[in-house]
Amino acid sequence: MANDNNFEQFIADLKTRANIKDVISSYVQLRRSGSDWVCCCPFHNEKTPSMYVHENQRYFHCFGCGKGGDVITFVRDIEGMSYIDAVRKLADQYHMEMPEFKADPKAQEEKDRKDLLRGIMLDANRYYYANLTRKEEGQPAKNYLASRGFGDDIIEKYRLGVSLSQDGLQGYLRRKEYKVPDIQACGLIYGKDNIDSFANRIIVPIFDAQGNVVAFGGRIYKEEDKDNPAKYKNSNTNEIFEKSNCVYGLNFIKEDRKKGIRPDELILVEGYMDVIALGAAGITNVIAGMGTALNEGQIKVIKKNTQKILVCYDGDEAGRKATAKNAPMLEAAGLEMKIVSLPQGMDPDEVIKAEGAEGFKKYVSEALTLIEYRLKLCREAYNLNTPDGRSRYLKAAIVALADLQNQVDIDIYTNEVANTGKVLVANVTSELNKLKRERIRKAREQEQAEEEKKQVTFSATNAIAVKCLKAERFIINRILNHVDYVNLDVIINDWFVDPTCSLIIEWAKKKVKTPEGIVTGDLYSDIPGPEQINAIFDVEKEKRTYEQNKAYYQDCIITLANAYFLRKNKEYLEEAGKIEDETERRKLTNLAYQASQLAQSKVIEDKYKQI
To answer: Which of 48, 108, 109, 194 matches a 20 to 30 Å C-alpha distance to 400?
Structure first.
């Protein structure tokens, strides 16, 4: 087994070989910005690019969300895998043989545990899938799937299966020498008799983005079960399945991309059966959010995989409510979002059966923007042939218009609303402006209340500490950016109080003496605390000219040096008060005086003295 030094050297070599610009460009589109590269950050929601990739210094940083790191941490976070798995992935990609290493016992234990549970889920899927091949017992389920348009090719692609009994699964898994508590931890069996949680249902495996089976969905299919209120049954959250971060179908999208199939947009539907139904019709750019309750975690996952999303929920009341809730969240995330409006009461599968794949594609081609969809719902909700209906329509439509920001859009849709409601455009504009002013007033009142609360709780001591921390981070930021007015030799380590800043100064002074010098990207593997490191790069949000930065750097030096001298003054005085020996006490008092004088000095050279 390789020692730690060998593994550290391997990581260093890997980060040199795995060009960070090339790796990141395989996930997002980069464009040149000076000597660096810029893109829309895949880790948060934005429309304007704010993530910079520094190829020469081997790191990335987003000024929008503050996230940053090296090539390994980028792959780790965007793929949702562990650090070591990210190392393995890059090592394979760049044909480097990864040495064995001594993993953290806890981390290794957790990995082994998850590997065990994934193994159980994979074998359970094999069992369910094999049941469909059983000529007599599996035929009814196969007939049901055929009636849905799911032939053998679809069954194989989506690894569909069936549970034929209450006890068959646990017997199969126990013969594989899995332990009952581990099978229960996967949510596959329950009760004292270890009954199959998905007994007598069609089985749909739920895959994570890497293609691992992490959960199951089950659907009734027998005629005698049609009155069962629980038509669908899904796995609960467990050690390997977090529903709030799961988006069904991404593994198939990734498989297609490896084959060169890269659709411009993805279609978001309600559930996995919609994904499979559309897949059976040849429409494969489809994903599902495990139901209509879309959340921030799933939106982040979606944004990592596409910039264009079409929301296609069922055409019933529940589907429309879910669209009204989720579509604004997707748009606010910076995604190019449109809504596929299906006929009243129909879901994607029913549209396919009634109108075929081309019929469904027609609805996709007619997808609406969010404002178009909202106005459509307003028109459908009220009787426009009556004065009261038009009045109600106008009030609802004006609320929808109030979210528009682009003046061209405002003009276009204000005219449309006025024409539909049969009123003057000026009246709609007047009511719209009145609503916007009220919203601005409330927002200002809330902002002022929050600011007053901050001022009450913010003490002078905190202000000094914050000023020093900002100075520490800016000085280090300048060091890491290799600016010409920084002289690392005269910077005193004891100026730095923040633990991360203190470590980085020591690190930088050692690195500058090595042949390669300071490579900023190495911070993320050499220094703990990525959040604090990212905060150091965030100080560049405040735009200054070169000369302004140089002057501010000098101010930061003075701030830290003075704070250092005042700390030393206090330390010497406190120590002097505890000593009885007159000579020693006088010596400490003299040092305290020197520190005080240096803090007050206007001579810049004095600031670089150490006492």
So the answer is: 48
Distance CA 89, CA 33 (A): 29
Provide the CB-side half-sphere exposure for 166 (13 A, CA). Answer: 6
Q: Distance (Å, rounded) from C-alpha 521 to C-alpha 472?
A: 19
Length reported for the chain: 611
**In sequence order, what are the residues at sequence separation of 6 or more whose Cβ sits closer than 8 angstroms to the Cβ of residue 328?**
370, 403
Q: 155: closest CA among 289, 255, 252, 276?
A: 276
For residue 206, count CB atoms less than 10 angstroms from its CB and return exposed for 0-12, middle for 13-18, buried for 19 or more: buried
CB-side exposure of 94: number of CA atoms within 13 Å?
A: 21
pTM to 2 decimal places? 0.66
How far apart are alpha carbons 72 and 317 in whole angstroms?
A: 45
All structural domains of the chain, each given as residue ranges with its CATH number in brackets, are 4-93 (3.90.580.10), 103-241 (3.90.980.10), 372-453 (1.20.50.20), 461-608 (no CATH)
d(CA 25, CA 294): 28
Distances (CA, A) of 594 to 558, 568, 603: 16, 10, 14
Query: What does the pLDDT look like over 324-351, one tens digit per residue?
Result: 999 999 998 888 999 999 998 899 999 9
What are the angstrom distances between the C-alpha of 259 and each of 250, 254, 502, 518?
Answer: 14, 9, 49, 40
Distance between CA atoms of residues 470 and 473, nearest Å? 5
HSE, CB side, 13 Å, CA atoms: give it for residue 493. 11
* Segment (H or E) for 203: strand 202-207
| Pairwise CA distance, residues 523 & 300, whole Å | 26
Over the stretch 52-72, which tens digit does the pLDDT of each residue have? Answer: 999 989 999 998 888 889 999
Q: Tell me the C-alpha to C-alpha distance, in Å, between residue 243 and each of 64, 77, 229.
A: 27, 18, 22
Instruction: Label residue 368 by pLDDT band (50, 70, 90).
Output: very high
Cβ atoms within 10 A of the Cβ of 133, count? 13
Q: How far is residue 120's CA from residue 197's CA, in Å, rounded to a whole number?
A: 14
Adjacent-strand bridge partners of 309: 266, 337
Query: Which residues lie across from 51 on neighbouring strands?
Result: 39, 62
Give the pair of three-digit tokens for residue 413.
């849709």
DSSP characters over 431-494: HHHHHHHHHHHHHHHHHHHHHHHHHHH--HHHHHHHHHHHHHHHHHHHHHTT-TT--GGG--GG
Q: What value does the CA radius of gyration of the chain take, rounded to a whole number of Å?
A: 31
pLDDT tens sequence across 261-313? 878 899 999 999 999 999 999 999 999 988 778 888 899 889 888 889 999 99
